Amino acid sequence: MNLRSPETSFLGSHINKIDQKGRVAAPADFRRALDGDPIRGFYAYRSLRGPFLECGGGDLIMQFKRMTVELDPYGEDCDALEAHIFGDMRPLAFDTEGRVVIPEAFKAHAQLKERVLFQGRGETFHILAADGAEERLAATRERASEALRRLRAPKGGSAP
User: Fold this and answer.
1) Coil, strand, or helix at residue 141?
2) CATH second-level architecture of 7-152?
3) Which helix (H) or strand (E) holds 146?
4) CA-based nearest residue to 124, from 22, 34, 28
5) Cα-based distances in Å from 105 to 53, 89, 117
6) How many whole angstroms separate alpha carbon 114 and alpha carbon 24?
7) Beta bridge partners of 43
8) Which residue in 90, 91, 102, 95 sits closest to 18, CA to CA?
């Protein structure tokens, strides 16, 4: 897996409003991270993990292609992943002001209303409802801390 460089990683959290025409501005640093992608925008699909959109550049598609090629091409797992991921994924192109229009079905899935949160995830980013974002982040803080401790623990030992 090719990792994005620090300069092209999706970092930070940004809250933006959806305008009356259904457009939302993507964060400027996310747009810069996507500069090399041919669609001049990003790809998004309805997450299988919760009420949010999972988004990224062309490398997101390549990541899923690498995953599905490991599966039996005639198996149910491959069929389900291809149908959901590739069948649901949409390219969202930036307009001249860096805004995208999020499809209605995507807005409904992510429960997006007036304000959306663009949350960087390094290789990808999520778009989710801005309401309650701080509470959701706080709820995962302890689990993230534990995961980091496990990752840093020496093999066969415990973390300092």
Assistant:
1) helix
2) 3-Layer(aba) Sandwich (3.40)
3) helix 133-152
4) 34
5) 11, 12, 17
6) 10
7) 56, 91
8) 102
Domain limits, the chain: 7-152
Pair 132, 112: CB distance under 8 Å: no
Averaged pLDDT for residues 102-119: 96
Q: Helices marked H in 37-132 — which ranges? A: 58-69, 76-81, 87-88, 104-110
Cβ 1 vs Cβ 99: under 8 Å: no
* Sheet of 13-17, strand order: 13-17, 115-120, 125-129, 53-56, 41-46, 90-93
Distance CA 155, CA 143 (A): 20
Per the structure block, which two tokens stand in for 23?
Answer: 């457009």
pTM for the full predicted model: 0.86
Write the single-letter amino acid at 138.
A
CB 94, CB 41: distance < 8 Å? yes
At 19-66, the pLDDT tens digits run 989 899 999 999 999 998 888 999 999 999 999 999 999 999 998 999
Residues in the chain: 160
pLDDT digits (tens, 9 = 90+) for 64-88: 999 898 999 999 999 999 999 999 9
Nearest CA to 100 among 122, 127, 78? 127
- Rounded-to-integer distance, Cα 114 and Cα 131, Å: 9
